[in-house]
Amino acid sequence: MTWCSGLEEICRADVPLSAHTWYRLGGPARWWVTPRDVAELQRVTARLRDANVPWRILGRGANVLVRDAGFDGAVIHLSAGSFSEVRYDGIRGYAGAGADFPKLVKDACNRGLAGLETLAGIPGMLGGIIRMNAGGKYGDISRVVRAVRVVDSGGALVEKTHDQVQFAYRRTRLDGCVVVGAVLELREHAAAELVDRYRQVWNEKYATQPPVSERSAGCVFKNPPGQSAGRLLDQAGLKGVRAGGARISEKHANFIVADPQATAAHVLELIEIAKDRVFREFGVELQLEVEVW
Ligand code: EPU
User: Fold this and answer.
1) Residue 269 exposure: Cα atoms within 13 Å on the Cβ side
2) Spatial contact of 136 and 222, defined as CB atoms under 8 Å apart
């Protein structure tokens, strides 16, 4: 009997993760699990813990690099309809972890609700956006999050307050938890202005970053305090440098783009080359922003 007996309807074996990441790289997940609701998610995580099977949650895979060997454990994907519910009561909203983030941002603008418009152009599911406190030049998601609903490491469904989540730069204290949704608090504002602002932020981003048609996982490294990883990588002469099918974008040096012949190993090799060069040139040790599985 394996950990998933009785859960066959929601559990598949050996599913290629390349089909589920923006990089379109990497090997399979030993198991791919799609629980239909929170109760089923709780059952799945309890079984995985009891059986000591490593597991991860994958959203849209926009910030993940999966190794070529794949992930020898269970990957949980909250794509079921019950996880993508979005509802508003005035300026307060509740959105499930499976909600498509770009769509959530656009909808809020059209409804005349401010707070998300500066997060235009960030791909992902809300769960992943919260988990890593995604953001950009104008702030991060933490600013509008009042509470986060999670299945905690003991398997209980609990609501964590903003303070308990301990949002920091691209980081939260949600280890061992599965985000199932979040309570957002927005502000009333003229919809037309929000849509304009949204477009402006989107345009700025795509003027300085590689287009979505190029395979990447966004910024590879975190910005060191008070510095820009992109600028350091650029000044170190890394734009255009390649390892196999992976190359450092000519447009923004903190993006590693995968060409058709790329493997995850090529991207990892280039990450090491880039880190090494920045350390030798500037004595700065860059930290990964992308998650490597
Ligand atoms: N720069 C260069 N060369 C480059 C890239 C950047 O000189 O190749 C310079 C720019 O000219 C600018 C400075 O570095 O003066 C900062 O660059 P930018 O404005 O592009 O922002 P960033 O700090 O590199 C951050 C986020 C991005 C987010 C943008 C825009 C991080 C690591 N990156 O980039 O987030 O899209 O702001 O809001 O925090 C991501 O998280 O995956 C991501 C791409």
Assistant:
1) 14
2) no
- Per-residue HEC secondary structure of 200-240 comes to HHHHHHHHHCCCCCCECCCECECCCCCCCHHHHHHHCCCCC
Q: How many CB atoms lie within 10 A of CB 114?
A: 20
Tell me the residue type at 91.
I
Average pLDDT rounded to a whole number, residues 255-263: 97
Confidence (pTM): 0.94
- From 228, 235, 251, 288, the mutation candidate for ligand 1 (largest count of ligand atoms within 8 A of CB) is 228
pLDDT in tens, 182-202: 999 999 999 999 999 999 999
Compute how many other C-beta atoms are within 10 angstroms of the C-beta atom of residue 285.
Answer: 10
Give me the percent of the chain exceeding a pLDDT of 70: 100
Per-residue pLDDT for 280 more than 80?
Answer: yes
DSSP bridge partners of 194 = none
Mean pLDDT of 97-124: 97
Distance 11 CA to ligand 1 centre (A): 39
Nearest-CA residue for atom 16 of ligand 1: 228
Rounded mean pLDDT, 123-149: 96
**Cβ-contact 180, 149 below 8 angstroms:** yes
